[in-house]
Amino acid sequence: TQLLEQSPQFLSIQEGENLTVYCNSSSVFSSLQWYRQEPGEGPVLLVTVVTGGEVKKLKRLTFQFGDARKDSSLHITAAQPGDTGLYLCAGFYGNKLVFGAGTILRVKS
Amino acid sequence: KAGVTQTPRYLIKTRGQQVTLSCSPISGHRSVSWYQQTPGQGLQFLFEYFSETQRNKGNFPGRFSGRQFSNSRSEMNVSTLELGDSALYLCASSWTSGSSDTQYFGPGTRLTVL
Question: Cβ of B16 under 8 Å from any chain A Cβ?
Answer without folding.
Answer: no
